[in-house]
Structure formats: C-alpha cells, structure tokens
Specification:
alpha/beta, 3-stranded antiparallel sheet, 15 helices, 10-stranded mixed sheet
C-alpha cells in the first residue's frame, strides 16, 4: 500500500505531444465502412461524420475493389491514412497477445464492486497476469478496499482525501511502467476477451486511445429506468465503430473504460474537472493530432444508476460540465451544428404557411443543385444532390427538436408560457422527438413511458447546462455552430 501525499499540477491547458509518426505499417488492413457510398467506377466516395466527399484516382479506387486492402507500400499507406481519417474505412488490425499494459482502477469505497471487477480481470486469461493499480481516492472505509486488493494480490495507492476521479486516474498513470494503460472504473465488469481488440488498434502509430462499448449489466427484475438505460445510457456509444472526432456523431468516449498510449496522454486528465474530464482528454488528444478509435466489438458491462433521484442528479451533473468544455474547446461542444440554409428552411417550414413552405422548397432545391454541381462524376448527380440536401434538412430539424427539449428548454418553456403557438409547437416537438427515438432505440418500454423518461433526461441535463453556464458566466455551451459546407466540412483528398 502506497500513500500519495503530493498534489501534482493539473494538466489543464498543457499541450499534449503530437504523434511522432502517422505512417501506417506494411500489413495494416483497412475495410470499407458499411455506410460509405461509392460511385459505380469507385472513384467518388461519400461517407464519414459529418459526411464528406472524396475523389480517388483510378489506381487508388482499384485498391478498394474488394472492399478492403492491406498496406504494402508508401502509396498504400498514404491512401489508407487519408481514408481512415475521413472515416470512410475502418481498421482491421491483426490481434496480438495482451501484454505491456497496466490496468488502473480509481475507486472510492465500493469494495464489493471492486472485488467483482478484480475477479473478472483475474479469471479472464489474457488479463489474469497484468499489473493492476487500484487508487483509493479518499474512501470512508479504506480497510475494506485494502482487504480486497490484498486478497487479489494487486497494488493499492491511497489518496488521504478525495481528489476526484481525474486525479485518481492520473496517480495510476504516473505509477504505470507499461506502454499502455487501461482505465477501468470500479463499477464495470469487462466481458472475456475485451482487451485484445482495443490493444490491436495501437498497431496504428497515430492512435492514442481506444474504447469499448459500455453496455448495461443485466438485472433480475428491470424497472422502467433499467429498461431505458439499456438503450439510452450516456455511457453506451452504440453499435457502430468509428473514429472519435469532435463535432461528429462520435465526438467523445466515456472514461468508464478506455485504453491509452501512455506516451501520448502526457500528465493525463484535467484534475480541475469533476465531470467532463474524459471529453476534455479526447478533444485535447484530437487537437494534438492523435487518432482515437471506438471499438464496440470489445464490451464491458456497467451497473447503471436507476434510482430516480440519483439518476436525475447524475444527468444534471453531466450537464454542468458543458460550460467548462465549451470554454476550453470553443465551438467543439455546440448543441447544434447545421448549415445556414437548412436552419432558414426549417424556420420557414415552422411558419406552417404555403408561402414560407414554398420558399423553403426553393432553398432546398438551390442547395441540391449546388451539391449536384460538386458531384458531376456521381452516377446520378441530380438525385444525389436532392437526397443529400433532404438528409441535411432532416438532420437540422432533428437537432432543433433536441435543442428545444434539451439544451434550450428553459427558453422554449418561457416562449410557450406567453404564446399559444409556441406552446403547441413545444408539445408537438416533445412528443415527436420522443416517439421517433422510441422507434429508433428498439426499447421494450411502452412508447409513452419512453417519451416521459426521455423528457426527464433532457430536463435534468439541460438544467445542468444552464447551471454551468450561469456559474461560469458564459453562453458558450448554448451557442449553435454553423456548417459552411452543404455536404462536408472540407473537400476530401484525391489520393
């Protein structure tokens, strides 16, 4: 047992090192993402998040004829890197033995959960002999944790007082001596074989972080909140793999379980943040040029909070972190990211009158024509332009619904209090968004129960966002961000 008495400086604002090499090695395989669209000749590609266009030479397109290719020369390495960074292909690295990894577990009390986690690690052959560092972050009953760690034969580091999960993880990071560090919260239970797919991602020398999917642990008699958390936990990033990139469908991964390259993360998490420190680390790594991967094939179970009071408190706490993140990373945590034309079209459609609706149709048509001109080599440019423009319009409408019921609900409720039209619009938005989400989620909850819980979820999170904004005296987490391209933030490369 080691007592940690020093309080090293927080890494807030410290620039992380950039990757020394981003060249993919020979033998590295990439595979076309399922949602990537290609023209018949294979030279025009649309994919990624947000969607972007890429044009390939005939030679580059031929490499992907089979839907995947393996790097064997400098040109192939450059092509694979560009396609990976655009999100139109996924890596398919070979699995390697699990080694050179330390597991770090921050914990405060929860001796029973720690015992369950350590048992899972020690009974899974790949992780049974890995070094494990448990960091007791000021437990009220330190003897219980000492007994558990002693029984499992793992090292215990002790903070004399509570300093928060970021500081606890950083303590473990400083004491690790391996190339990779796996952070596991004490309330997770990794599934067998979880670590190998994550470590395989580091065959790419530019990858700094890999994360598994965090799924709900089964409970004998699930209640309404249990069933909601099974499909809408903020820790579960879904079944689709991909790169972790700010202002995208996968803008961060939670630190409930992550694996990091120790040389990439510097001093680690920002100890000044009690919530959102995982989002901050993701954004700092991305800003330094590192790549981050989400790998849902690797899974860990998590016992979600389902007591209503603690569940609401947790959601509110998550919201309070938005202000700090928005100040540290301007424009990266905007509640809405949409093109000006689509915002204008949605505003016109909300008028509910023929004239404004016709003008919205004109705006959409003009945008479709502009997109089609950018895609003269598409199989059917007019059709592609129309479909992409309608998809953008739908995406903006869905974001506006979320803003009205989540980040900006105090404004929406205030408007509804003074305007009958706004009142009907808010009620319609709350029902429409909730019912659409119920259908997408595939939950076993009754539709109205799902809608009610989702609205409680949004009310709590939005209240936290406003609390944080008032506390920090900033409107940054409430400001939308405009997308100035109809299809992508930047034109794709032409490798």
């Amino acid at each position: 047992m080691t007592f940690i008495r020093s309080n090293p400086p927080s890494p807030s604002g410290i620039r992380l090192p950039s990757p020394p090499d981003v060249t993919l090695p020979d033998g590295f395989t990439v595979e076309l993402a399922p949602d990537t669209h290609r023209s018949r000749d294979g030279q025009l590609m649309l994919g990624g998040s947000p969607p972007r266009l890429l044009r390939l030479t005939a030679t580059a397109a031929r490499r992907l004829d089979a839907g995947r290719f393996t790097v064997s020369d400098a040109a192939g390495a450059a092509l694979a890197r560009r396609l990976l960074d655009a999100g139109v292909v996924h890596p398919r690295p070979a699995l390697a033995p699990v080694r050179d990894t330390t597991v770090v577990i921050p914990v405060r009390d929860r001796a029973d959960q720690l015992d369950r986690l350590l048992s899972a690690l020690r009974t899974d052959p790949p992780t049974s002999n890995l070094p494990v560092l448990v960091v007791d972050d000021g437990s009220r009953d330190p003897a219980a944790l000492a007994e558990v760690t002693g029984r499992h034969g793992v090292r215990l580091l002790v903070h004399p007082y509570n300093r928060g999960p970021a500081a606890a993880r950083n303590t473990g990071l400083r004491h690790a001596r391996t190339s990779y560090v796996a952070f596991c919260d004490s309330d997770v239970v990794p599934e067998p074989g979880w670590l190998a797919p994550l470590l395989a991602q580091f065959a790419d020398p530019a990858v700094a972080l890999a994360a598994p999917r965090v799924v709900a642990l089964p409970v004998p008699e699930p209640g309404l909140l249990d069933r909601y958390e099974e499909v809408r936990s903020p820790l579960d990033m879904g079944a689709r793999e991909g790169p972790v990139v700010p202002v995208s469908a996968l803008s961060y991964v939670p630190s409930a379980t992550i694996v990091v390259r120790r040389s990439a993360v510097g001093a680690g998490f920002d100890e000044g943040m009690r919530v959102g420190e995982d989002v901050d680390l993701c954004m700092r790594l991305h800003g330094a040029g590192w790549r981050l991967r989400y790998v849902p094939a690797a899974r860990v179970g998590h016992r979600h909070r389902t007591d209503l009071r603690s569940w609401l408190a947790q959601r509110t706490a998550y919201g309070t972190g938005a202000a700090d993140l928005a100040l540290r990373h301007p424009g990266q945590v905007a509640p809405l990211y949409a093109a000006p034309w689509s915002l204008a079209a949605c505003a016109l459609l909300l008028r509910g009158r023929p004239g404004p609706a016709a003008l919205a149709a004109v705006l959409t048509g003009v945008t479709a024509a502009r997109v089609a001109r950018r895609m003269p080599d598409a199989d059917n440019p007019p059709r592609a332009g129309v479909l992409l423009s309608l998809a953008a319009l739908r995406g903006t409408a869905e974001q506006l619904l979320r803003c009205a019921t989540r980040h900006h609900w105090p404004v929406a409720v205030t408007a509804a209090a003074v305007s009958r039209r706004a009142r009907y619009a808010l009620i319609a938005a709350a029902l429409a968004e909730g019912l659409a989400d119920h259908r997408r989620s595939g939950t076993s909850l009754p539709s109205l129960a799902h809608v009610a819980i989702r609205r409680l979820d949004d009310l709590a999170y939005g209240w936290g966002v406003w609390q944080g904004a008032v506390r920090r005296r900033t409107a940054a987490p409430l400001k939308p961000r405009l997308a100035l391209r109809a299809v992508s933030r930047r034109a794709g490369p032409r490798p």
